[in-house]
Design goal:
Helix content is about 25%, strand content about 40%. It has about 100 residues and is an alpha+beta fold. The longest helix has 12 residues.
Length: about 100
């Protein structure tokens, strides 16, 4: 049995703010910072934001984190990127 799942991959980030944050404001800031296709939603509480970004093979995870932090600290200087994961474009498995 072969199993291959193809998807576009991308970046998944969890951001924590010290106060409730407006999801639309986060989208606007990210778009202005060069992330026009960011998917943004609350998770857990109104202070926790999940962000999904399309893949950018020209950027390292460190560079993406720095750009996200720069954009989001404009909303609140205490905003923190708590987790950032870069997911590759293909997952595959092969079973005998």
């Amino acid at each position: 049995m072969n199993l291959t799942i193809d998807f576009t991959g991308g970046v998944s980030a969890e951001v924590r703010f010290p106060r409730a944050v407006n999801v639309d404001e986060v989208r606007t800031r990210l778009s202005a910072a060069g992330f026009p296709r960011a998917a943004v939603q609350n998770f857990g509480s109104s202070r926790d934001i999940a962000i999904r970004l399309p893949p950018d093979p020209k950027q390292t995870a460190t560079e993406i984190r720095a750009r996200l932090e720069a954009a989001l600290t404009g909303i609140d200087p205490a905003a923190q990127v708590a987790q950032l994961d870069v997911v590759g474009p293909q997952v595959g498995a092969s079973c005998g």
